[in-house]
Design goal:
alpha+beta, 3 domains, six-stranded mixed sheet
Length: about 475
């Protein structure tokens, strides 16, 4: 048995295989002292799905805005990139001598972009023109909103009460307008500050702002009480300060949309005399339909700028179309069924909202890489991938990877809520014809700063890019300076 003892000794003494550069990079990420005590999940796969590096890839993590990858993919797979969402203006009651005695009704079907920007102004102008063509110059009665199409929910499951007035937590629903927010602007005045709210359809804000001497401190707080339309602005503003603006969510999106419609129609020459005692008779008639941009365009602010309202709306649009109701329960049910059709194993997945604000979401890194891999073979691939932020160049990645190997090579969705940082997407090599790496990094429960956690994630991705042969942006710049220029 001496020979066996010798063999065992040789086996014990045999050196362990040298880790690949990607495995070495992962080991460094897992060993970072600033992330100690946190949970780190990583999955890096190749173009055929082979796992190149992984840690806790089968564990569930809070997703933050990485949930938007699921919402966008499910919506595109269900509805198609050309799908448009209607918002309709109906009227009911007789029209006599240019006066509608009855009711105008604005009916939504979940368009998150309705009433926003120049397109929103154009939509209201078209509605006023259509009313005139229908013989209406004045409305005596009511203007109402119908937001029932998506269901009765307006807030995500597990959303926190203390941020519900923040612009990133706008309520959702069948009828939206202007992102369901108002803009509060405070500027110095001659003797006291001036506060404006646009659109000016809510009760006047309560203002307790002191104007201080030039060079003084400008510190402002804007709040909307829960369950109320009342906005409160407090703090100080210096005489030489620039105007300060902040967006605040509205309480009731449908009521807000009706108020904005009424205001816009009046400005466009349609008089509105609101009378609760006027009974609308007869069958409702469709006046005009406004169509949203195609879904392929709606997913751009969703993924590029991480717009939470758009994510909630398209996730519920898909569920409503497939299952007849846009409830959170149906969002989860439909998303899992769609992901399964794409080849993603959804075992252990929990979906509590469409945006990732909820801490009840649980998704595994391997599930996100499986989805990103499936997208590459899907009909909606172009709309999805083109909407992702690019490292150091666009969207929520514009200020990251500024001088790293990943700049211009990483197309990925960011994610952040308190104690959660995630990044999942594609990493292109130096040769554009090569298939990209697909990665998902999910860090939960860290106690360091958000910026430190993001820096750790970015350092890992930069190491992956270096392993692929990507060159740092500063090195590319130097190389281009040395190359001869044809004249």
């Amino acid at each position: 048995m001496v020979w066996m003892a010798g063999l065992l000794a040789a086996c014990v003494a045999a050196p362990s295989p040298t880790p690949s550069p990607m495995e070495a990079a992962l080991a460094q990420l897992l060993a970072r002292p600033e992330l100690a005590g946190g949970r780190i999940g990583v999955c890096v796969v190749g173009s055929s799905g082979e796992v190149l590096a992984a840690a806790n890839a089968d564990r569930g993590f809070a997703t933050a805005s990485n949930m938007k990858l699921i919402s966008a993919a499910v919506a595109l797979a269900t509805l198609g990139g050309e799908h448009r969402v209607p918002t309709e203006l109906w009227m009911r009651g007789p029209v006599s001598a240019g006066v509608l005695h009855g009711e105008l009704m604005l009916r939504g079907h979940g368009d998150p972009s309705f009433g926003t920007g120049a397109a929103g102004k154009a939509a209201f102008k078209a509605m006023a023109s259509a009313l005139r063509e229908a013989g209406v110059q004045r409305v005596v009665g009511r203007v109402v909103g119908d937001d029932s199409w998506l269901g009765r929910e307006h807030l995500g499951l597990g959303w926190q009460w203390d941020y519900l007035d923040e612009d990133y937590a706008a309520p959702f629903g069948g009828l939206c307008c202007g992102g369901n927010v108002v803009t509060v602007t405070v500027r110095p005045g001659l003797s006291e500050p001036v506060v404006e709210v646009q659109p000016s359809v809510l009760p006047a804000p309560r203002v307790q702002v002191q104007q201080v001497e030039a060079g003084g401190s400008t510190r402002l707080t804007t709040r909307r009480a829960l369950g109320s339309d009342a906005i409160e602005v407090t703090g100080t503003i210096a005489k030489d300060a620039r105007p300060q603006s902040v967006q605040v969510t509205v309480r009731d999106p449908a009521a807000f949309a009706v108020a904005v419609l009424t205001s816009e129609l009046r400005q466009l020459g349609i008089a509105i005399e609101e009378r609760a005692d006027v009974v609308a008779e007869g069958e409702p008639r469709l006046v005009v339909t406004h169509s949203s941009p195609p879904l392929a365009q709606l997913v751009q602010p969703l993924l590029l700028n991480s717009n939470n309202l758009y994510a909630e709306q398209v996730a519920r649009l898909a569920a409503r179309t497939a299952l007849g109701d846009g409830s959170t329960a149906n969002v989860e049910r439909h998303a899992k069924a769609t992901l399964a059709q794409l080849g993603v194993d959804t075992t252990g997945m929990v979906i509590a909202d469409g945006s990732g604000l909820s801490r009840r979401n649980l998704v595994q890194p391997r599930q996100l890489t499986a989805l990103l891999l499936a997208v590459r073979g899907a009909p909606f691939r172009e709309a999805f991938v083109q909407a992702l932020p690019v490292a150091g160049e666009s969207g929520t990645l514009r200020s990251r990877f500024r001088d790293g190997h990943g700049k211009g090579h990483v197309s990925a969705k960011t994610g952040f809520i308190s104690r959660v940082v995630c990044l999942s997407g594609y990493l292109d090599g130096p040769d554009p014809v090569d298939d990209p790496l697909i990665f998902s990094i999910m860090v939960n429960d860290f106690t360091c700063s958000e910026e430190a956690a993001k820096a750790a994630v970015d350092a890992f991705v930069n190491q992956l890019a270096a392993a692929l042969g990507c060159v740092r942006s500063s090195e590319r710049d130097r190389e281009s300076e040395l190359k001869p220029v044809d004249r």
